[in-house]
Write a structure and sequence with these properties.
alpha+beta; Penicillin V Acylase, Chain A; 6-stranded antiparallel sheet; 14 strands
């Protein structure tokens, strides 16, 4: 059985106290994760003073747009003993890399299938990132001050990423890159994801929240409820919604909305996103809609020599900041309000390797 993703179940519901609790409990993980990102930023030519300024700018944006999450992040800093700007930089890692105009192979591949017979959507995705940041992963369950229960897969210090809430709204997450991405740090896309998990009960709620944020980097959030799904493409130039076609909703790491796609910054010479998307459309078929999540995950067990590196493995001949790996495989069950996480890529999944992050009584199984 594979190693399990580290887990934390918050008991505090007040934002600052919840942050302090996590910061104290996960102090080592937070420090190691920031150190890993500091090395990544340096490798991409960012001076530590730039990272500090970007982190401080992110804190200001978060505090203005989502005060409760700003308080939670401040609590993490206090609990861990890290400077607050470092927590700001972790939450804005996508924005900082966008400000440096970083491109690269990654990241993720997401599939949602709607059976169309009243059965809830069936989802699966890979989370691809730098292999040297494998230790940054965290599965986290929490209850907000309003009583909303959330389970999220994220990174130490980052308030949210992929997840589900007890209203039965799930969220998948893929990075995008657009020519409108800029150097003036906006609301981090990871903070947008977490606020949606905290507050939204419908896809329309999620879109409204996303549209209210001033962004400086791009991503796509795939919102899933029992009744359906849609992709919400985000970038500073605008927000677009995409709906399923023939019961399938697929996304990798390039814009699909025609208007936003005109500003696409990712190219085929640096990323496999076009190949991965084409493979999913052509070969996914019934396996991606299987009732069993392990079978869905195994449908993503496709490597570069088979046509697309959906299941990615790091090329150790490359510098660390240019290496990519499928670090986790995830599936959301919106009917059971639970998130399932496997530590590793699809080719290492088995029935026993999942952990279940629940918004119900028991946090993890």
């Amino acid at each position: 059985m594979n190693a399990l993703v580290p887990r934390h179940a918050s008991t505090e519901t007040e934002p600052a106290a919840r942050g302090r609790e996590l910061g104290a409990a996960c102090r080592d993980g937070l420090r190691e994760t920031f150190a890993g990102y500091a090395r990544l930023f340096t490798a991409h030519g960012l001076h530590p003073h730039q990272v500090r300024d970007h982190g401080a700018a992110a804190l200001a944006e978060i505090g203005a747009w989502a005060p409760s999450l700003g308080a939670e992040i401040a609590g993490m800093a206090e609990g861990s003993g890290l400077p607050a700007w470092q927590l700001g930089a972790l939450n804005a890692r996508t924005e900082i890399l966008a400000a440096a105009a970083v491109t690269g192979e990654g990241e993720c591949s997401t599939s949602v299938v709607l059976p169309g017979d009243g059965t809830p959507p069936r989802t699966v995705q890979t989370w691809d990132w730098h292999d040297v940041l494998r230790g940054a992963m965290l599965a986290w369950t929490l209850t907000t001050g309003t009583g909303r229960r959330v389970a999220t897969f994220t990174e130490f210090g980052v308030v949210g990423k992929i997840g589900v809430n007890d209203a039965g709204l799930g969220l998948h997450f893929n990075v995008l890159r657009h020519r409108s991405d800029g150097a003036e740090i906006g609301v981090p896309v990871h903070v947008v994801a977490r606020r949606i998990l905290d507050e939204a009960t419908t896809a329309d709620d999620a879109v409204r929240i996303a549209r209210s944020a001033r962004l400086s980097a791009s991503s796509v959030l795939t919102v899933v409820t029992r009744d359906g799904a849609r992709c919400v493409e985000l970038c500073p130039a605008g927000v677009a919604e995409l709906h399923p076609e023939n019961g399938f909703l697929l996304h990798t790491n390039h814009f699909l909305d025609p208007s936003l796609a005109s500003g696409e910054r990712t190219t085929a010479d640096v990323s496999s996103t076009l190949d991965r998307y084409a493979w999913l459309r052509e070969h996914g078929g019934a396996a991606l809609g299987a009732e069993d999540r392990t079978e869905r995950a195994r449908a993503l067990c496709v490597h570069r020599d088979s046509g697309a590196p959906i299941c990615a493995h790091a090329d150790l001949a490359l510098p660390a900041h240019e290496r990519w790996e499928s670090l986790a495989t995830l599936s959301i069950d919106v009917a059971a309000h639970s998130l399932h996480v496997h530590h590793g890529g699809p080719c290492t999944v088995d029935e026993r390797s999942w952990i279940t992050c629940s918004t119900g009584g028991g946090a993890f199984a």
